[in-house]
Amino acid sequence: MHRLASRSLLIALCASLAGACSNDTPADAGGGPVDSGSSDMDSGSTADSGASDSGATSDSGTSDSGATSDSGTTSDSGATDAATPAGPCPATRPDASDACTEEGRVCEYGVRTCLSVAECVSGAWQVAIPRCPPPPTGGCPATREAASGTACAGDEGASCVYDDGLLCTCTSCPVPYPICMVVDPPVWACEAPNPDMDCPVAQPLLGTECSMEAQTCDYGCEEGERRVCSGGGWIAGSAPGGCPRSTRRAKRDIEYLDADDVDALAGEVARTRLATYEYTDPALAGRRHLGFILEDQPGSYSVDPERSQVDLYGYTSMLVAAVQAQQRQIDALEREVRELRATRPAR
């Protein structure tokens, strides 16, 4: 009975944090920028036949496809007519009202910061054309590694795509979950490569070719960040349960805890001071929350001090350690009871 209660507690603790995003993503790798500007899709607009994009303007003054930034790398723009790998979508962006056969198929064209989207609806393509903003002031950092976490002037929302297809975005909210902790000045928040070697490194464009039917690749915790291979092309999928995601492929220097380490973490959990509070943001006022204060837990695995937030993955793992330590205590008590019963004189 004690063992069942202990396991039930573990399940409840983990379920309560199932939607939390973990911070165990691999370090950024390098790769030169191939575009600049951020995605600003006018999803409600439908392209007329032959309509052209409002291409992003580079610092050199050139625009549309093939524009070159100050660093000499190709700038984003001209996203509509870029070739798409063979798959269930046309190789180039169709015109509005062109015939299509695969109802509901969505196809993306261009680069991720400036995408055109075509959807097959009632036998004809409906095409949404983006408004592509200019690249960041001063251009993109040379590599994702150089960009990650560094200040990005005042270009809030501007993005750069690197050779591996991964994005760095200028934002004052680099980690939005569970609550946006604003940083000033904004910094470059960069995507990490997908740790699954069977998946594309960066989130593939919808409709581009895939070969392993029903393969699923996750690229974040938000709705629409999952990709599923269906009918020879990538489609958007939902990810029930969200994060955390964890895999050995994304980690290094793995060291398993021994019983003493687990007991130490259990003791830290037992000493955690809980408090109720309200957030200072007026938009979040009026509701009290339960938790702990980061400054009360210096040096804890449950704290992400650089982002002023709880590391929910670390916190959940500490709760697992507490359950494991308690289970060992329960097992020891049960053994002691059995021994006492075995030596008790018969009546």
Topology:
Blueprint: H1 2-16, E1 33-36, E2 106-111, E3 114-121, E4 124-128, H2 144-147, E5 159-162, E6 167-171, E7 187-190, E8 216-218, E9 226-230, E10 233-237, H3 259-271, E11 275-277, E12 289-291, E13 303-304, E14 309-310, H4 312-343
Antiparallel strand pairs: 1-5, 2-3, 3-4, 5-6, 6-7, 8-9, 9-10, 11-12, 13-14
Helix pairs in contact: 1-4, 3-4
Could you explain the architecture of this structure?
Helix content is 18%, strand content 17%. The protein has 347 residues and is of the alpha+beta class. The chain has a four-stranded antiparallel beta sheet. Strands 2-3-4 form a three-stranded antiparallel beta sheet, with no helix packed on it. Helix 1 runs antiparallel to helix 4 (312-343) and helix 3 crosses helix 4. The protein is extended and about 90 Å long. The two termini are 27 Å apart. Residues 1-30 and 35-81 have low confidence and may be disordered.
Q: What's the helix-strand series?
A: HEEEEHEEEEEEHEEEEH
- Report strand %: 15-25%
> Could you give the order of strands across the largest sheet?
1-5-6-7
Radius of gyration: 26 Å
* Helix-strand category: alpha+beta
Per DSSP, the total helix count is: 4
DSSP strand tally: 14
- Termini separation: 27 Å
The poorly predicted ranges are: 1-30, 35-81
Please give the largest β-sheet.
4 strands, antiparallel
Mean pLDDT across all amino acids: 76
